[in-house]
Amino acid sequence: MSGRTRLSQLAALLLAAASTEALAAPDVSIATPASGVEAVAFEVPGCRYCELFRRDVLLTYNGTPAGKQAPLRFVDLNEAAAASLKLAGPITIVPTVVLLKDGVELGRIPGYVGRQNFHHLMDTLLGTQ
Fold this sequence. Notes:
Layout: H1 3-22, E1 37-43, H2 48-61, H3 65-69, E2 72-76, H4 80-83, E3 96-101, E4 104-110, H5 115-126
Parallel strand pairs: 1-2
Antiparallel strand pairs: 1-3, 3-4
Helix pairs in contact: 2-5
């Protein structure tokens, strides 16, 4: 087997592993952290931008001050848990991250905006900037 073939196989395995991790089951629980502040990422199965969000943003978000102040959980937009939240309006694009305090929407970031923009927008929503 040539080096190029092995490299191609390794790349395919890494992509498959990343895709599998990105498609982890959403957290459909509706318990909020003790502070009452949380970020909820609404997604749907098969959403490529939802996968990109998980890959590019999730890994860094949890370690940031915003991530500690507003833990992030995932909810499938099609699940009943999504309808139980008090949102200011409908979710029309996925992923959409909604900042909630005691289950009531404070603000949202619609769509995949990239890692740096997401962190900046979350800091702005939380007033930590």
